[in-house]
Amino acid sequence: MAKQARAVQTWRSIVDAAASVFDDYGYERAAISEILRRAKVTKGALYFHFASKEAIAQAIMDEQTSTVEFEQEGSPLQSLVDGGQQFAFALRHNAMARAGTRLSIEGVFLGGPHPWGDWIDATARMLELGQERGEVFPQIDPMVSAKIIVASFTGIQLVSEADTGRADLREQVAEMWRHILPSIAHPGVIAHIKPEGRVDLAAQAREKAEREEQEARIAAKAKDAGSLPGEAGPRGGGAGRGTRAGQGADEADEEPAGAGAGVAAGGAV
Q1: Which of 80, 195, 236 lies closest to 149 in space, CA to CA?
Q2: Cβ atoms within 10 A of the Cβ of 116, count?
Q3: Burial of 128 (C-beta count, 10 Å sphere; 0-12/13-18/19+)
Q4: Residue 205 and residue 199: Cα distance in Å, rounded?
Q5: N or C, which end of the chain is more exposed by having fewer CB within 10 Å?
Q6: What is the rounded (10 degree) CA torsion for 129, 131, 134, 139?
Q7: Can you give the pLDDT at residue 242?
Q8: What pLDDT digit, counting tens, does each position of 185-234 carry?
Q9: What's the rounded Cα separation, in Å, for the pair 212 and 190?
Q10: What is the pTM of this model?
Q11: Is the dihedral of CA 141, 144, 148, 154 positive or negative?
């Protein structure tokens, strides 16, 4: 189990590092050596998990879609709006979302699956659900509308990135919905939809950060209170007395980068 946990952690480290590299450099300029440097793993560990740079990029594309979850209860259209705002927020604060989007825009997988396929399919399903619940006009083709919505969002986030570094993306996405909703939804439904999303994710994130900071301060005070000068372990035994030779020898499974392979600069996507 310990080896399996380390393998999962190594995989996670590689994908997270690659996302930051792809976000910075794009696919073509991304170097495996830079991914290794940021992930702090050896080349052998990386190629144990991924056969190529393209395989890492595909993992990031798969991860990107998991940043949004559409609620199935309540209003399907509001859930669709909320999901779009959730992804807009992720584009500002999550390298995985940015890297996946950049990979899609660069058209990395010309010979593979359509890079926008998952988003279009998920959007079409929510529109179909909206039709079932009487929110979306019955004459609307969910797949056609889904493609328009995904394409509109993609273009808007690119313009927002160029104009403000995506600082105004939430409002720009809200404007997108104000233009699209009248063409797909009943007027009575639109009156109850919040184009900015039901939750202010930025405020929510600030509250979470403040809460975690407060908890960290409390934990630090508790730790200091329990570590008074001159305090010793049971019967005077000092800390670290129980360390045995060979303990932790199982941790050399995937050695950190720098313990063998030389690491150079590189990129991602």
Answers
A1: 80
A2: 18
A3: middle
A4: 11
A5: N
A6: 170
A7: 41
A8: 999 999 999 999 987 655 555 555 456 566 666 777 777 777 545 544 44
A9: 37
A10: 0.68
A11: positive
